[in-house]
Amino acid sequence: MKPVHLRILSYNIHKGFSARQQFTLEAMREAIELVHADLVLLQEVQGDHSEKKTKVKNWPSVSQFEFLADRLWPHYAYGKNSVYAKGHHGNAILSKYPISFSENVNISTNRFERRGMLHAILEVPELGTHVHAICVHMDLLQAGRERQIQKLIERIHAVVPHDAPLIIGGDFNDWREKSSEALHTELGLEEVFQVRCGSHARTFPVWFPFLRLDRIYYRGVHVQDVQCLTGKPWNSLSDHAALFADVLVKPMS
Known about the structure:
Elements lengths: L3 E9 L12 H11 L3 E11 L2 H4 L8 H6 L5 E10 L2 E9 L3 E8 L9 E9 L4 E9 L4 H18 L6 E6 L7 H9 L2 E2 H6 L16 E6 L2 E8 L12 E8 L4
Helix pairs in contact: 4-5
């Protein structure tokens, strides 16, 4: 067995709208497809919205994650986090590899921010092992994020084998950059941009990024390349930049 390149994209899609509230989901799909990622971790994905589907031009007839996955990713999972009268939104994972298991874990800390971590296990036949992927969207407030990081640590200790390849991506809202130390100390996780570039990527707001909110953490893989996608067309699609990482996963010995 040979090592496998796993191309990863993490992206807060802002429910398919740009910062100027233009509906850009179709352009998002085209941009995401051009990356040809094997694993796509998405936040703020609209699962359903009864009003928008009748009022917004070009609103898809299926959920946003199904629309985005349609042409390249045959496998996907969705974690419904925020539910309201007109619909719901949450996180999604799109994969070129089969997903043998997925679970959405509620990590909400207050009634105003409904948050979850979506955990999926990918079957990668070329490796003879599973790859664990977790997609998260953390609180705006520091106290809530600290509790959510602890829940993430507990989840990984409980269900992810220490020698299994692990990818965690998402919008950590961690503008104070406190999460990486705890994740490294407790789990041995590294962050792709910290390792390759010396600091987390600036991802928000996408038209003039100065806050380092989005991350891709890993364990059990080797980082080959990273990119923060802030230029055209990305700077007019969502309010966040997308993060890309190419990692090398070695087969089980």
